[in-house]
Amino acid sequence: MAVYILLSRLTDEGCATLTKNPERIKEVNKDVEAMGGKIIAQYAVLGPYDFVNIVEAPNNETIARISVQLASRGTVRITTLPAIAVDDFIESLK
After folding, report:
1. Helix and strand element counts for the chain (H, E)
2. What's the confidence (pLDDT) of residue 21?
3. Which of 11, 32, 81, 92 could form a disulfide with 37 if both were Cys (CB 3.0 to 4.6 A apart)?
4. 3-state SS class at 21
């Protein structure tokens, strides 16, 4: 499966949701898996983004659907980046 980096910023509504129910983060992870993705790693971060998620998905279409579906809830804005393993990248340069 392909690997993607999802950089997430909470909206005001998303902040309110997490304040009331911090476990909502884990519930969303289940939603991602139901849509065909798999959470590999997840971090809460400081700076311009609130979360960094490493996600596996079978293809660009699946991760695009996941990103749009999550963003359509109005609680988060997501930047989705395809990731290439460094060894694979080096091999492609040969």
Report:
1. 4, 4
2. 95
3. 32
4. coil
Which one-letter amino acid corresponds to residue 25? Answer: I
How many domains are contained in the chain?
1
Identify the DSSP state of 22. T
51-57: strand order across its sheet: 38-44, 51-57, 2-10, 76-83
Domain extent at residue 14: 2-93
Q: Give the contacts of 76 (CB within 8 A, at least 6 positions apart).
A: 8, 9, 10, 11, 14, 70
**SS3 (DSSP) at 74:** coil
Confidence band for 57, pLDDT divided at 50, 70 and 90: very high
**How far apart, in whole angstroms, are the C-alpha atoms of residue 91 and residue 46?**
34
- Return the CATH number at 31: 3.30.70.920
Q: pTM of the entire structure?
A: 0.91
Report d(CA 35, CA 39) in Å as an integer.
Answer: 11
